[in-house]
Amino acid sequence: xxxxxxxxxxxxxxxxxxxxxxxxxxxxxxxxxxxxxxxxxxxxxxxxxxxxxxxxxxxxxxxxxxxxxxxxxxxxxxxxxxxxxxxxxxxxxxxxxxxxxxxxxxxxxxxxxxxxxxxxxxxxxxxxxxxxxxxxxxxxxxxxxxxxxxxxxxxxxxxxxxxxxxxxxxxxxxxxxxxxxxxxxxxxxxxxxxxxxxxxxxxxxxxxxxxxxxxxxxxxxxxxxxxxxxxxxxxxxxxxxxxxxxxxxxxxxxxxxxxxxxxxxxxxxxxxxxxxxxxxxxxxxxxxxxxxxxxxxxxxxxxxxxxxxxxxxxxxxxxxxxxxxxxxxxxxxxxxxxxxxxxxxxxxxxxxxxxxxxxxxxxxxxxxxxxxxxxxxxxxxxxxxxxxxxxxxxxxxxxxxxxxxxxxxxxxxxxxxxxxxxxxxxxxxxxxxxxxxxxxxxxxxxxxxxxxxxxxxxxxxxxxxxxxxxxxxxxxxxxxxxxxxxxxxxxxxxxxxxxxxxxxxxxxxx
Length: 510
Description:
By secondary structure, the chain is mainly α. It has 23 helices and 8 strands. It is globular and about 80 Å long. The model is unreliable at 496-510 (pLDDT under 50).
């Protein structure tokens, strides 16, 4: 079995190496027609003289092509800024569209097979033999392995993820070959050429499905885990990825029916509202659905099922954390100090989202962008950069191998904060404990991805009603004595710990 897994590992690494090497192949030839098509008329008139030396020249790699294309734009912008001619500064990012249009193409089917094909076959070859293992977790050195204990393998994975997100958000022109690789799939679904975001969605779904299979095998002894994993796989693949692309094919707005404000922070941005309102009845329905989901759906569903109904069964961020991030769940910090940081930080982001959205709506209805000393366009830009890109993307996923798989969910997700407030004070959900059966093995605390010291609750026989708990149920699934149970009951009978004191002090009954 180990031999088969080694073959699978090397096959996966071969596919991954081909995926990286793809960035160095291909030819790029800029034409005047490409410039006219992808640049605004006023920018074409200014840039064409500076770019004429590139026209007709063939480049053998995208890096030198992008560098030569960006150089005159940066030089012009530097001159405009030096003269304080701010209205002439070119803020549009043209490099990605121009590089993609200038590509001479490559053997798509061959590269797809040797990159994605080998990687998927290798991953499955490594995962499927584990069906011969006993289900659940084992004391097999999870804190000593280089991949799962902040070792060199885990750090390497983290560095790659961070670099990938940085390039994806800020310099997608350097990954045009990866985007071209999924171009036929995008055209088959939506009829449109692929963008960097389609590539991201494709890779996202691939990770959730492949690592979801791993979860199904690992926790096959638990019907709850099987259903939950199947749910996040379905919602990510069908509802978040395929359905929105099919909507575009029928000239309907791109819409993720499972996503909602404030996680979907641009839901109330003017361009989105205008698109929905201009789409007739279906657009009005989508707008109403999005509002009803967080105004009505969250309080009702969270009252009956806790935040687990969304965070562990539906959410795409949670879906990636529970599948791709599962090998790192034990790395979440369980200290009281980090719990305090978590509470302050996540509610700060929620407040930030509320303020930003209020300013956006004020501008939308009044046409004025300034409220006191705040400019709505600047605030939305700050939120998009610091929260939408850096926190949720670069840190939220890139730090899986360092801080555990729920970094974003614990410290930054504004929707998790909103759901958590409802769960903490008005919900039937709790994890009950039978302290008399606890043998203090520590499995529950070790594998709690949300940084909850579950064992401390179990030893005291106290219900777990922490607002951060996403109800993944792994603590219950790894408990050898059946001490922990996920239950719904009368919220008035729950015991809530006062938030400013360590566990075991000042418990109050709601």
